[in-house]
Amino acid sequence: MNDPTPLLIFETLLTAYGHQQWWPAESPFEMMVGAVLTQNTNWKNVEQAIGNLKAANMLDAASIVCADHEQLAGVIRPSGFFNQKACRLQLFSRFYIAHGEISGLRKQPMDEMRVQLLALSGIGPETADSMLLYALEKPVFVVDAYTRRIFTRLGLLSGKIDYDAIQNYFHQQLEPQLSLFQEYHALIVEHAKRHCRSKPLCGKCPLLNSCNYSKQ
Predict the structure, then answer these.
(1) Last residue of some domain: 70, 102, 135?
(2) Based on the domain organization, do 170 and 192 belong to the same domain?
(3) Which of 49, 84, 133, 170 could bond to 79 as cystine, CB 3.0-4.6 Å?
(4) CATH number of the domain bearing residue 123
(5) How far apart are alpha carbons 216 and 214 in whole angstroms?
């Protein structure tokens, strides 16, 4: 694959890894809780925290809002920064209820909903866009550290480019399709785990022939 484009890269990754069927959650609200809990930790820890919420019958917005702070923090302790995340979950859950829960949130225009999510303490662009893409079913491209790493190594992005500029690059290069953006983000995560690690395993990388980093 010479002169790679985002679409060609997507097709290559899809051929290599298959459909990922992401995000791992049983409901939109669970997905949104997971997006908050996964900040600064790994997914295994998030799964433990979500399992604790389910076991305590607390994985719903009303229960989280009404919970004692110390109790909620204790339940989500495996996710790390549990006192901070307990505050953020209660703030988000109040917002979720006030806006009509999932059906109400999905009715809002994407740009307006993104601004409102970003106004909540502790919700940055990646968290907000993950919620929009996977829970609210809005076609927005999620940018994470893996995206920056992979596409910088491919030579398509500058390492100093900011979140919004990276997102605009993909929005300009790709059709705004929900399924495409969901699958692409999942494939980027899978590729980063298998090959494009901080210390890359380039030998069998499906993007090897188009990667500037591997030619250095």
Answers:
(1) 135
(2) yes
(3) 49
(4) 1.10.340.30
(5) 6
Q: Which of 103, 135, 167 is the last residue of a domain?
A: 135
**How confident is the prediction for the chain on average, in pLDDT?**
95
Q: Is the pLDDT of residue 207 over 90?
A: yes
SS3 204: coil
Tokens (6 digits) for 186: 């999942």
Q: Is the pLDDT of residue 13 over 90?
A: yes
How far is 194 from 186, CA to CA, in rounded Å?
A: 12
Q: Are residues 118 and 152 in the same domain?
A: no
Contacts of 214 (CB under 8 A, 6+ apart): 153, 200, 202, 205, 208
Q: Whole-angstrom Cα distance, residue 51 to residue 24?
A: 13
User: Of the candidates 148, 154, 160, 156, which has an alpha carbon nearest to the alpha carbon of residue 214?
Assistant: 154
* CATH assignment of the domain containing 196: 1.10.1670.10
Both tokens of residue 27? Answer: 């409901």
Can you give the pLDDT at residue 2? 60
34 and 122 housed in the same domain? yes
Residue 1 has pLDDT above 80, yes or no: no
- Look up residue 81 and give its two tokens: 């920064």
Burial class (CB in 10 A: 0-12, 13-18, 19+), 55: exposed
- For 74-127, what is each residue's pLDDT tens digit? 999 999 999 999 999 999 999 999 999 999 999 999 999 999 999 999 999 999
